[in-house]
Fold this protein.
Amino acid sequence: MATGLSIKKGDLVRVVAGRDKGVEGRVIAVRAEHQRVVVEGVNRVKRHTKVVQQGGRGGTTGGIVTQEASIHVSNVRLLVEVDGNKVPTRVGYRRDEVEKTRPDGTTYPAHRSVRVARRTGEEI
């Protein structure tokens, strides 16, 4: 069931649905097998951690830690710059023909898949 996602780590996205609708942030992590992404500053949850006593300095302190939880990839849209404004867009793919070089110096035609902003048609 794991499919490739159009959102990658480091992309700037806007949340379009849910509790944090309208918030913009960078993608910290992508969990493609679950179709979920972790976005900086979005879906913050409190985790209660336990004190772990391991011999010496290996122990961790307990307490309440606030961190980002994942959200479904359908709830975010990639942001692209249009006339100085950041606008949400869908992501498409285009196959470009490129010239590749073999180790012996000969070249051959090949294809490369690139992400494209549907709104502007520009390569991301």
Remarks:
- The chain has a mean pLDDT of 91.
